[in-house]
Amino acid sequence: MARGRKAAVTALDGALSAVPPAPKWLPPHGRAEWRRVMPQLVADRKIAAHELGTVEALCLAVARTREAEEALQKYGLTFESESGPKRRPETTILKENIEAARRLAAELGLTPASRSKNSGGAIGNDDADGLGDI
User: Fold this and answer.
1) Which of 57, 63, 82, 89 is 20 to 30 Å from 124 by CA-CA measure?
2) DSSP-derived secondary structure for the chain
3) Contact 79, 85 (CB under 8 A)
4) What are 13-56's pLDDT values in tens digits?
5) How far apart are CA 56 and CA 118, in angstroms?
6) In sequence order, which residues have a C-beta less than 8 Å from that of residue 99 and are 6 or more positions away?
7) 44-91, pLDDT tens digit by residue?
8) Cβ atoms 68, 93 nearer than 8 A
9) Alpha-carbon distance 8 to 58, whole Å?
10) Among residues 57, 55, 33, 35, which one has the least CA distance to residue 46?
């Protein structure tokens, strides 16, 4: 390999070779998200068994986002309290879970920005890869 060139990104050691079923405890929207993202993560060899908790967290955040949005569409953004109109608690749930889903998706390499930074997998053992340089 030429000096100064980064090693090719390869498959993650211990990557899953088949998509495991979605956890039964995930809400319906979470299971749908699992079925949407896991095939690509497995095909790209970007996910190992010990990282499934991150995918579960992403799927749960997506499910909670959708549940909060459904409640807001049904009940509106505010409610009347004794002291006047208040924001529904679902607005906070929505915001927190959108932010969590975005962070988790980036961590998993599922966003355009994260894909452009690293195409995933483990970097080969190469002294010229620049890792560890100060």
Assistant:
1) 57
2) --TTPPPPB-PPTTB-SSPPPPPTTS-HHHHHHHHHHHHHHHHTT--BGGGHHHHHHHHHHHHHHHHHHHHHHHH-SEEEETTEEEE-HHHHHHHHHHHHHHHHHHHTT-SHHHHHH--SSPBP--GGG-TT--
3) yes
4) 688 999 999 999 999 999 999 999 999 999 999 899 999 999 99
5) 22
6) none
7) 998 999 999 999 999 999 999 999 999 999 999 999 999 999 999 999
8) yes
9) 28
10) 55
* Overall residue count recorded for the chain in this entry: 134
pTM of the model: 0.76
Q: For tokens 């970007």, name the residue.
A: 46
CA distances from 18 to 13, 22, 23, 33, 48 (A): 14, 12, 15, 17, 10
